[in-house]
Protein backbone atom coordinates (compact mmCIF):
# COMPACT_ATOMS: atom_id res chain seq x y z
CA UNK A 1 0.00 0.00 0.00
CA UNK A 2 1.18 3.52 -0.73
CA UNK A 3 -0.46 6.88 -0.25
CA UNK A 4 0.36 10.46 -1.08
CA UNK A 5 -0.86 14.00 -0.55
CA UNK A 6 0.45 14.55 2.98
CA UNK A 7 -2.17 12.40 4.71
CA UNK A 8 -1.10 10.56 7.87
CA UNK A 9 -2.93 7.38 6.86
CA UNK A 10 -4.84 5.83 3.99
CA UNK A 11 -7.91 5.57 6.23
CA UNK A 12 -7.87 9.33 6.82
CA UNK A 13 -7.69 9.88 3.07
CA UNK A 14 -10.85 7.94 2.30
CA UNK A 15 -12.85 8.71 5.47
CA UNK A 16 -14.56 11.88 4.12
CA UNK A 17 -15.70 10.16 0.91
CA UNK A 18 -19.41 9.40 0.53
CA UNK A 19 -19.42 7.43 -2.73
CA UNK A 20 -17.28 5.14 -4.87
CA UNK A 21 -16.91 5.64 -8.62
CA UNK A 22 -15.14 2.62 -10.09
CA UNK A 23 -13.74 1.69 -13.46
CA UNK A 24 -14.85 -1.59 -15.02
CA UNK A 25 -12.18 -3.39 -17.07
CA UNK A 26 -9.12 -4.23 -14.99
CA UNK A 27 -10.60 -2.73 -11.82
CA UNK A 28 -13.83 -4.62 -11.10
CA UNK A 29 -13.91 -6.94 -14.11
CA UNK A 30 -11.20 -9.19 -15.52
CA UNK A 31 -11.80 -9.03 -19.27
CA UNK A 32 -8.13 -9.22 -20.21
CA UNK A 33 -8.39 -12.33 -22.36
CA UNK A 34 -11.33 -10.96 -24.35
CA UNK A 35 -9.64 -7.60 -24.83
CA UNK A 36 -6.40 -9.23 -25.95
CA UNK A 37 -8.17 -11.49 -28.44
CA UNK A 38 -10.12 -8.62 -29.98
CA UNK A 39 -7.22 -6.17 -30.27
CA UNK A 40 -4.71 -8.80 -31.40
CA UNK A 41 -7.03 -9.80 -34.24
CA UNK A 42 -7.54 -6.16 -35.16
CA UNK A 43 -3.82 -5.37 -35.07
CA UNK A 44 -2.98 -8.32 -37.28
CA UNK A 45 -5.69 -7.31 -39.75
CA UNK A 46 -4.27 -3.79 -40.16
CA UNK A 47 -0.60 -4.76 -40.01
CA UNK A 48 0.13 -3.21 -36.62
CA UNK A 49 2.26 -4.70 -33.84
CA UNK A 50 -0.20 -6.46 -31.49
CA UNK A 51 1.95 -5.78 -28.43
CA UNK A 52 2.12 -2.07 -29.19
CA UNK A 53 -1.64 -1.95 -29.67
CA UNK A 54 -2.27 -3.85 -26.43
CA UNK A 55 0.11 -1.58 -24.50
CA UNK A 56 -1.71 1.51 -25.76
CA UNK A 57 -5.37 0.49 -25.77
CA UNK A 58 -5.97 -0.08 -22.05
CA UNK A 59 -8.30 2.60 -20.71
CA UNK A 60 -8.61 4.25 -24.13
CA UNK A 61 -11.79 4.47 -26.22
CA UNK A 62 -11.61 2.20 -29.27
CA UNK A 63 -11.67 5.10 -31.78
CA UNK A 64 -8.58 6.62 -30.14
CA UNK A 65 -6.64 3.38 -30.53
CA UNK A 66 -7.73 2.98 -34.13
CA UNK A 67 -6.76 6.52 -35.04
CA UNK A 68 -3.35 5.93 -33.48
CA UNK A 69 -2.56 2.73 -35.39
CA UNK A 70 -4.57 3.28 -38.59
CA UNK A 71 -4.10 7.02 -39.19
CA UNK A 72 -4.93 6.59 -42.88
CA UNK A 73 -8.53 5.67 -42.09
CA UNK A 74 -11.34 8.16 -42.53
CA UNK A 75 -13.66 8.91 -39.64
CA UNK A 76 -16.41 7.03 -41.47
CA UNK A 77 -14.17 3.95 -41.68
CA UNK A 78 -13.30 4.23 -37.99
CA UNK A 79 -16.98 4.35 -37.01
CA UNK A 80 -17.64 1.20 -39.05
CA UNK A 81 -14.61 -0.63 -37.65
CA UNK A 82 -15.46 0.32 -34.06
CA UNK A 83 -18.96 -1.12 -34.49
CA UNK A 84 -17.52 -4.41 -35.76
CA UNK A 85 -14.87 -4.47 -33.04
CA UNK A 86 -17.40 -3.88 -30.25
CA UNK A 87 -19.74 -6.51 -31.70
CA UNK A 88 -16.95 -9.10 -31.44
CA UNK A 89 -16.23 -8.14 -27.82
CA UNK A 90 -19.92 -8.25 -26.87
CA UNK A 91 -20.08 -11.89 -27.99
CA UNK A 92 -16.79 -12.82 -26.28
CA UNK A 93 -17.57 -12.81 -22.55
CA UNK A 94 -17.35 -16.51 -21.66
CA UNK A 95 -14.17 -16.06 -19.60
CA UNK A 96 -14.96 -12.62 -18.16
CA UNK A 97 -14.79 -12.79 -14.35
CA UNK A 98 -14.83 -10.40 -11.36
CA UNK A 99 -11.50 -9.09 -10.13
CA UNK A 100 -10.33 -10.35 -6.70
CA UNK A 101 -12.53 -8.77 -4.03
CA UNK A 102 -14.88 -7.04 -6.48
CA UNK A 103 -18.01 -8.98 -5.52
CA UNK A 104 -17.28 -8.66 -1.81
CA UNK A 105 -16.60 -4.93 -2.13
CA UNK A 106 -19.79 -4.15 -4.03
CA UNK A 107 -21.88 -6.36 -1.75
CA UNK A 108 -20.51 -4.50 1.28
CA UNK A 109 -21.27 -1.13 -0.34
CA UNK A 110 -24.87 -2.23 -0.91
CA UNK A 111 -25.16 -3.45 2.69
CA UNK A 112 -23.86 -0.10 3.95
CA UNK A 113 -26.16 1.87 1.61
CA UNK A 114 -23.06 3.59 0.27
CA UNK A 115 -23.62 4.97 -3.25
CA UNK A 116 -21.45 3.52 -5.99
CA UNK A 117 -21.22 3.57 -9.74
CA UNK A 118 -19.28 1.95 -12.54
CA UNK A 119 -17.60 4.50 -14.82
CA UNK A 120 -16.20 3.03 -18.03
CA UNK A 121 -15.01 4.04 -21.48
CA UNK A 122 -16.76 0.98 -22.92
CA UNK A 123 -20.02 1.52 -24.82
CA UNK A 124 -23.22 0.67 -22.98
CA UNK A 125 -23.97 -2.71 -24.58
CA UNK A 126 -20.47 -4.05 -23.97
CA UNK A 127 -20.40 -2.73 -20.40
CA UNK A 128 -23.71 -4.40 -19.54
CA UNK A 129 -22.56 -7.72 -21.02
CA UNK A 130 -19.26 -7.78 -19.14
CA UNK A 131 -20.80 -6.70 -15.85
CA UNK A 132 -23.46 -9.39 -16.14
CA UNK A 133 -20.82 -12.01 -16.94
CA UNK A 134 -18.91 -10.97 -13.82
CA UNK A 135 -22.02 -11.01 -11.63
CA UNK A 136 -21.97 -7.28 -10.91
CA UNK A 137 -25.06 -5.05 -10.81
CA UNK A 138 -24.09 -1.40 -10.29
CA UNK A 139 -26.89 0.93 -9.20
CA UNK A 140 -25.48 3.53 -11.60
CA UNK A 141 -23.57 2.86 -14.83
CA UNK A 142 -21.85 5.61 -16.83
CA UNK A 143 -20.43 4.53 -20.19
CA UNK A 144 -18.87 6.15 -23.22
CA UNK A 145 -22.40 6.26 -24.63
CA UNK A 146 -23.46 8.72 -21.90
CA UNK A 147 -20.90 11.50 -22.34
CA UNK A 148 -19.50 13.63 -25.12
CA UNK A 149 -15.90 13.35 -23.94
CA UNK A 150 -14.75 10.01 -22.43
CA UNK A 151 -11.76 9.49 -20.14
CA UNK A 152 -9.18 11.02 -19.79
CA UNK A 153 -11.66 13.93 -19.82
CA UNK A 154 -13.37 14.42 -16.44
CA UNK A 155 -16.89 14.24 -17.88
CA UNK A 156 -17.67 10.59 -16.98
CA UNK A 157 -16.72 11.09 -13.34
CA UNK A 158 -18.50 14.41 -13.08
CA UNK A 159 -21.65 12.85 -14.53
CA UNK A 160 -21.48 9.82 -12.23
CA UNK A 161 -21.11 12.05 -9.18
CA UNK A 162 -24.11 14.08 -10.33
CA UNK A 163 -26.22 10.93 -10.70
CA UNK A 164 -25.27 9.85 -7.17
CA UNK A 165 -26.01 13.34 -5.78
CA UNK A 166 -22.49 13.87 -4.42
CA UNK A 167 -19.72 16.30 -5.25
CA UNK A 168 -16.76 14.80 -7.13
CA UNK A 169 -14.59 15.80 -4.17
CA UNK A 170 -16.76 13.53 -1.98
CA UNK A 171 -16.08 10.46 -4.13
CA UNK A 172 -13.29 7.97 -4.64
CA UNK A 173 -12.33 7.34 -8.27
CA UNK A 174 -10.97 3.79 -8.38
CA UNK A 175 -8.94 3.05 -11.50
CA UNK A 176 -6.22 0.91 -13.01
CA UNK A 177 -5.18 3.04 -16.00
CA UNK A 178 -3.43 6.40 -16.42
CA UNK A 179 -6.31 7.72 -18.54
CA UNK A 180 -8.85 6.83 -15.88
CA UNK A 181 -6.80 8.29 -13.05
CA UNK A 182 -6.33 11.49 -15.03
CA UNK A 183 -10.10 11.73 -15.51
CA UNK A 184 -10.82 11.22 -11.82
CA UNK A 185 -8.15 13.70 -10.80
CA UNK A 186 -9.41 16.35 -13.23
CA UNK A 187 -12.96 15.87 -11.93
CA UNK A 188 -11.75 16.55 -8.39
CA UNK A 189 -12.15 13.05 -6.96
CA UNK A 190 -9.82 11.34 -4.51
CA UNK A 191 -8.01 8.91 -6.81
CA UNK A 192 -7.30 5.28 -5.92
CA UNK A 193 -5.06 3.18 -8.16
CA UNK A 194 -5.32 -0.61 -8.15
CA UNK A 195 -3.81 -3.56 -10.01
CA UNK A 196 -0.41 -1.99 -10.60
CA UNK A 197 -1.45 1.51 -11.63
CA UNK A 198 0.16 4.48 -9.91
CA UNK A 199 0.17 8.29 -9.82
CA UNK A 200 -2.85 8.47 -7.51
CA UNK A 201 -3.70 9.76 -4.05
CA UNK A 202 -3.78 6.15 -2.85
CA UNK A 203 -2.22 3.04 -4.42
CA UNK A 204 -3.66 -0.37 -3.47
CA UNK A 205 -3.25 -3.93 -4.69
CA UNK A 206 -6.88 -4.69 -5.58
CA UNK A 207 -10.54 -4.12 -4.56
CA UNK A 208 -10.02 -6.51 -1.64
CA UNK A 209 -7.54 -4.13 -0.02
CA UNK A 210 -9.90 -1.21 -0.58
CA UNK A 211 -12.66 -3.14 1.20
CA UNK A 212 -10.37 -3.71 4.19
CA UNK A 213 -9.75 0.04 4.44
CA UNK A 214 -13.42 0.93 4.10
CA UNK A 215 -14.33 -1.51 6.86
CA UNK A 216 -11.65 -0.02 9.07
CA UNK A 217 -13.05 3.47 8.55
CA UNK A 218 -16.68 2.49 9.12
CA UNK A 219 -15.93 0.47 12.25
CA UNK A 220 -14.35 3.43 14.01
From TrEMBL:
UniProtKB keywords: Hydrolase
One MF annotation (Gene Ontology) recorded for this entry: sugar-phosphatase activity
EC main group: hydrolase
E.C. code: 3.1.3.-
Pfam families reported for this sequence: HAD_2
InterPro entries per UniProt: HAD-like_sf, HAD-like_SPP, HAD-SF_hydro_IA, HAD_2, HAD_sf, PGP-like_dom2
SUPFAM superfamilies: HAD-like
PANTHER family noted in UniProt: FRUCTOSE-1-PHOSPHATE PHOSPHATASE, GLYCEROL-1-PHOSPHATE PHOSPHOHYDROLASE 1-RELATED
Descriptive protein name: Phosphatase YfbT
Underlying gene: yfbT
